[in-house]
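Components:
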Amino acid sequence: MREKNLRLFATLMAMLVGVAIFVYIEYFSKSYLQKGFNTLNDLDKIQLNLNALDGELLKSTYFLYYNYDRINRLILGTESIVDDICHSEIIHESSFADCKKRLSKFKNDFEKYRESIERFLTINASIKNSVIYLPRLQLEAYSRFDTTKADRMKLIVSMSRINAGIFLSKNALDKDFLEDISRIGKDMGKEMTDLEKDEYELLRTYLLHLNIYLENFPIYLSDITSLVDNSINSEIAEVIESFKVDLRKKLTEVKNTTRILVSLYILSLIVLVYFIILTDRENRDLHNIKEKLYISLITDQLTGLKNRRAFAEDIANLEHPTLILVNIDRFKHFNEFYGSNIGDKVLQEIAKILKKSVPKRYFVSLYRLGGDDFGLLYHCDPGLQRQIEYYNRLLQYIVVDIDGLNLSLSFTLGASRESDRLLETADIALKYAKSSKRERYAVYSEALDNRKEIEQNLEMIRMIKDALTQKKLIPYYQPILNLHTMKIEKFESLARISTDKSYETVQPGKFLTMAKEAKLSGEITFAMLGQTLETAREFENYNFSINLSTEDMASEFDSKKIISLLEKNRDICDRIILEILESEEILDYGVISDFIKETKSMGCRIAIDDFGSGYSNFEKLLKLDIDILKIDGSLISRLDSDEQAEMIVRTIMNFAKFAGVETIAEYVHSEKILEIVKEIGIDYAQGYIIGKAENHPLTDAERPR
Amino acid sequence: MPIFLSIFIYGKMEINEPIQPIPLKMDYDREKALLGKKLFFDPGLSSDGTVACANCHQPESGAEPSRFSLGIGQQEGNANAPTVFNSVFNYRQFWNGKSANLADQAKGPMHNPVEMNGSSTRIVSYLNSKKEYRERFEKVYGKSIDEDIVADAIAEFEKALITPNSRFDRYLRGEANLTKSEKRGYRLFKTLGCITCHNGINIGGNSYQKIGLVHRYKWSERSPDRYSLTGREEDKNVYKVPTLRNIELTAPYFHDGSASTIREALAKMAYHNLGLKLREDEVNALSDFLKSLTGQLPDILKEKER
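Structure:
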């Protein structure tokens, strides 16, 4: 879990650092370069402006007619650029603190510089004003003064000298001439005494202008010198230099940060790759473990063969699988006799032998499918008959040496090609081979499959049980005709099960087998007897016969129940006939003869059913004191075609007459048989021609003739 | 910056000429200028709702016909209002140049107790009470009204107040000729030395100079001169040189409005700064020249109120 967090952390780290690098390079490095160069550019422009200002200032002194806009434009432009830089982001960064300090000093100094320029322009204008005007006044003097007078001419000459001095001093920017000019001016002032009024005014104006020039020129001179020689130029150069240094520092910083970020990024990538490799290795280990687990899951631990689970998985992928089951005969015996330790070793040996036996040219897998069942699975039909014969021969006589014991083994084989229930059908074949005494192998075919029968049997047992609990087991009565009187005298009570739809006949043979198998025959007999007794009570002119099984009589519980029921109906017992199947047992067991004696003592009569069908022992029959013989239907039904049958019947008849026993012919199904039976002299007849079993006794009156 | 560029282009054309013609077009933001125009004419900006910028800067001349500006309650100021026309070309604003730009200038009269006497909160709340102002400021500036954008709008309007195509400008561009008298006037303008102070695009407005250089000009504590800012003795009676553009329309003249005609102004300037009495023919020529400086009225003033 901790490792997983670490992995997540490394991934996030790599992503974050990646984004950070991108942002940093995109927004910081680029913008630093951009902003840095922009600012540097602006600073250069300021420097250019300042140089241009120097030039313009000098021009403004040289040209009498000058446009101050040119100077103002440079000042305003510089102010605006300085403002822009001061408001830019980059200059407020801590890295540019030094530059910022220098810039703000520059800004202050530039303001002072600007004020000096403004003042200079005022003085400049004053000086120019006078410089322009003084020559004009000199010209005026020529026209106004009386030039014939020497002192007037002297004044004009003084004006010329002054104007020449002004011209020189102004153009040379030299104040050395001022002294002379000043002296001449003072001398002129002394000679103003006897002038005409307009002469006086002109001279006064001249001297006023001269005075303006003399007063302002030194200031003008020092101003222009200091303006042109101003430290402002070197100051901006320092600002530029410090900005370059700061920018270089900042860019180095950016570069270093980028380096660190890139290294971090690479590091986190390395960590990521490490984790990817680690995860991959773990996955491989896990996969191996899983593989091993899976193999052990599908392997039989004892023999090392594949197990039943593997078998189920394997056949799912095969289209035409063929299976041969190999079973060790009497393996249980080895386990019990020698102990399971030896038994296990036997299994291991057999596994070895089978492994060696597998024919290489087929795709065959070998499995241990159960305790002593081995399976050979062919991925396609190999010619099953040949294969099974091959194995039968191979395994005919195997002797294995286990711990010095020479154990000889025999095998039974079952095979199948039924792909949808391969194991089950092979097992059926195997069971069949086992039960058959002669065959040591069998291949499954539908004929071997008693599955349907089993299902039917189960269904029947279920039905019988249901019928008993829901009282749906009811007697049907088949009439028995007296061949002497040609009247119905008796009825045989036959069990029927009523279903919702109709009444269904239950085949006597099967029914009986099932009932015996399910230990239900006692109950059935009891239920039938009860209802038949009631019917006998109702139909008092008729006799009623009912079937008993050997088990009924042999079972103490069932026989007592039957006897006590008969006891209760003792008054009509003389009309009750108990039909017993002829078999060896009934003649042997004393219990049964006791039962017969007891019932006979209550007035019941005893009939032997199906007489002549099997083993008939006349002697023993006589001992039992039988009243009636029911001659087997298979004999009767053949009377019209089989002379042998007729002979047997006649023999039985003779015996019966001799023994004083009544006879009843069963299965009389045609008029012809009926004639023959009559002719032979049998007392009674029973069969379809006389009447089918109905749910109540059909008397002569009701019977169709 | 665009101002300097446009000046620069013309400046290059007549590199040796100390006077430059007014550019035919100015770059300005029209929406802002129109909003500024509305503000310029709105007396609601003053404390008693009687004084608009336009009271003293009238649309015919950009200046005022009375000597001194009349503020709220008919109070008289200490100066004759300089023309607002072409003021964008001035290096600094006000007589003493106390404002570096138009926007800063615009705030001056709005706050001056004898002019409009408005506080910024009062002005802003007045403007906010008007739906039209709220909407237009929101549309033009994308933010709520404050004093800076009010001044900015007015300044933008003033940028548009230029008067190009005076006869003299067209003469400079070689598109027209001057009369003989006008030409003589211009030559006198140079030889007399007027040009040393009155030069550049605005023929003035680009330096501080002293009135009364030769013969002293009267001075009082109330004079709106450089001295009022710097306190330096030599700055007494030093003013930003006024523009001579449209001089014919902007009487009375000087910071104190003391000259009511051009001739009077010429005589005074000649006396105080040249120590000279101009002859009649010189005055005529100079006056003719000065009248050739009258340009076209700004287009934006001709537009209908918006």
